[in-house]
Design goal:
169 residues, Arc Repressor Mutant, subunit A, Rna Polymerase Sigma Factor, Chain: A, mainly alpha
Length: 169
């Protein structure tokens, strides 16, 4: 029996508990179901990171919780960057509205480590030092992530971003 097969068989034992926890987190049955599905998808994709003999329930609940937190962060970014009626420049220019939506969609494609520095600086208005401290990373690491994130964002917006391929041996 392979690790993936063992994991897939044992997942069924924890689905009810995951659903209950997801419902508590989201307070919405449909969102809870989506969250559980995302959690199970991630768990299966990361089956090689689960160590047999460790508590599968704890591992799954950690995935569910982290997925929920990531989704909350994405929603927060979208709300923060959402247009307000007072923003007449964007309201009166449909092109600007479309461009803003494209930037938000492109931001969603970035890895969390690259997206967070961009959002903290561009949306929250933090200085580089403040943002690095908030992320609990050295300033040099922050600069590196910010630079890579900006470059990836440019490539996505220009349409030159290529899908990342994984070498399987």
């Amino acid at each position: 029996m392979t690790l993936e097969t063992d994991l897939a068989e044992r997942l069924h034992d924890h689905v009810a508990g995951l659903r209950r926890y997801a419902l508590v987190l989201t307070r919405n049955r449909d969102l809870a179901e989506d969250l559980v599905q995302e959690c199970l998808t991630k768990a299966i994709a990361a089956a090689d990171t689960w160590k047999p003999g460790t508590d599968l329930r704890v591992w799954l609940f950690r995935i569910l919780h982290n997925t929920h937190v990531s989704e909350q962060r994405k929603r927060h970014v979208r709300r923060t960057a959402a247009l307000t009626p007072a923003d007449e420049a964007v309201e009166s220019d449909p092109t600007a509205r479309v461009e803003l939506q494209q930037v938000l969609d492109a931001l969603d494609q970035l890895p969390e480590a690259q997206r967070r520095p961009i959002v903290m600086v561009a949306v929250e208005g933090m200085s580089y030092a403040e943002a690095a401290k908030a992320l609990d990373v050295p300033l040099g690491t922050f600069y590196s992530r910010l630079g890579r994130g900006r470059e990836a964002l440019r490539r996505i917006m220009d349409g030159t971003e290529r899908p990342r391929l994984r070498l399987v041996v």
